[in-house]
Structures are given as C-alpha cells and as structure tokens.
Design the sequence.
C-alpha cells in the first residue's frame, strides 16, 4: 500500500523549508529557464524505499518534473544500480536534491534493516515488529519503510492501542486494575501489558489482555511463559533484542519480537545524484 499523499507532501514541505529557507542562494548561479536532467544511483546493496517522498520533493519545486524509476519500494538494489532518471528545471533539481536523497537514504536504510531482521525469523511463525523509536517527524514514513522491508508495524502512536507499562501499573494499583481500566477507557482497542517477571506474567494472563510483552525476561522464563500461556493471548518479546539472537528467540515460540533498532540504529544508504 502506497503512503498517503497528503502525509508525504507534509513531510516534504517541512524538509524543503528547513533546507531552503527563503531562497537557495547557490541555485541562483543557474538560469531559471534552463531545463536539466540527472540520475540517481546507489553505491551499495540495499532495500529501496522512499520513491513518493523523492518525487514530491522535485515536483514541489517544479510541478512539471518527470521521474523515471527503475526500482520500486521494497525492491533489492545492487551496488552501482541506476535508481531514477530525473528531468526538471535545473534549479529545481539542485534545490530538491538533498531533501530527496535524505528521504531515500533514510527510508531505504530502515527498509534494509527491517528486511535483515525479518529474514532472520523467516519460517518460524514469529513476526518482527517496529516500535515508536522513530526519527522525530518521520513516524509514518519509517513505519511505511518497515513494511516495505517485510516487517510489521506495532501501534502507530499513543492513540491507537493501549500499552500498559510499569508506571501505569503503579498508578492504577495493580496489573488487573490497569487492564480493567484500559478496557473501560478504550473499548475495541488492543490492550497490551508489559511484564518483567513470571509473577507479573501470571497476574497479567489472569486479567485477560490481548497481548503480553515479555520485557527482558531470561530465556528460560520466556519459555516458561509460552508454556503457561498455551496460546491464550499473543506474546511479544521486547528489550535488548540483537540480530544474532533472533533465531534463538523465535524458537521460544512467541508471536512477535519488537525491535527498536530497525528505525533508530540505522545507517543511511549511500546514494548519489549526478547531473547529466
């Protein structure tokens, strides 16, 4: 599913305002009437993502800009591959370049990380989830990139699901009271609770949430939790998850493993734009 156009335009408008301010001084060296052409290539293998954001960046400065893409979101790129050919006013190309590439390199990095983690649990029945640990202002964009990489989205924000943590439990008085209150306040919404021990797990299971998050329990305790659960509610592992441990964690038999690293521990993909 393609991202919502209005959200893409809003992301791009913020990026261009941040970069251009009132005027691109260096672009004034180029004639306003001149047409130009450029190519975008990747210097490394990665999963591509961000096409709509790049298109919006160029077309915000030249509505007649034409982009011919050689890959689509979710496709695997190889080093040296031609990604896109751009035809537009030359000033628009140089002024939009940085914002367009920033979106492409960041979202491709997110999609690449998501693919790496999701591939590590392929065939196990366990699915990789993202978290809310996204770059400020790019929540929707990065969650789209996660999906392009083959992982799944956790809640979009604090508004679409309930996730009860330690401080919520303390304020409510108990695990059971917190879950009961969540059901009253947000009927029909998913209610998840985070537990840090088997004792808390047993209390949570008895209270009937939709999902229980096992936060940094030992491997043995997580196995015990899966056995005690017997498929009653969904189980999610979170906290300190490393790529090297994914096969071990998935073998425990949980439904989900949530990983903040796929949106916050990313390295931008090396892309380049060159004028023809």
Sequence:
């Amino acid at each position: 599913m393609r991202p919502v156009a209005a959200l893409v335009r809003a992301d791009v408008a913020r990026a261009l305002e941040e970069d251009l301010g009132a005027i691109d001084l260096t672009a004034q060296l180029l004639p306003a009437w001149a047409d130009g052409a450029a190519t975008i290539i990747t210097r490394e293998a990665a999963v591509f993502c961000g096409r709509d954001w790049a298109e919006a960046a160029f077309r915000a400065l030249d509505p007649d800009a034409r982009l011919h893409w050689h890959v689509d979101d979710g496709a695997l790129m190889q080093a040296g591959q031609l990604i896109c050919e751009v035809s537009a006013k030359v000033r628009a190309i140089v002024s939009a370049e940085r914002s367009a590439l920033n979106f492409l390199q960041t979202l491709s990095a997110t999609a690449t990380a998501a693919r790496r983690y999701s591939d590590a649990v392929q065939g196990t029945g366990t699915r990789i989830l993202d978290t809310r640990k996204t770059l400020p202002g790019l929540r929707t964009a990065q969650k789209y990139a996660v999906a392009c990489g083959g992982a799944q989205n956790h809640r979009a924000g604090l508004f679409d699901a309930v996730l009860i943590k330690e401080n919520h439990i303390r304020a409510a008085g108990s695990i059971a009271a917190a879950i009961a209150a969540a059901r009253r306040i947000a009927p029909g919404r998913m209610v998840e609770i985070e537990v840090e021990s088997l004792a808390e797990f047993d209390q949570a299971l008895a209270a009937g949430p939709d999902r229980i998050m096992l936060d940094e329990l030992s491997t043995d305790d997580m196995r015990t939790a899966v056995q005690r659960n017997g498929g009653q509610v969904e189980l999610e592992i979170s906290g300190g998850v490393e790529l090297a441990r994914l096969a071990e964690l998935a073998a425990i038999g949980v439904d989900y493993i949530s990983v903040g690293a796929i949106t916050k521990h990313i390295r931008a993909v090396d892309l380049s734009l060159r004028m023809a």
In short: The mean pLDDT is 96.
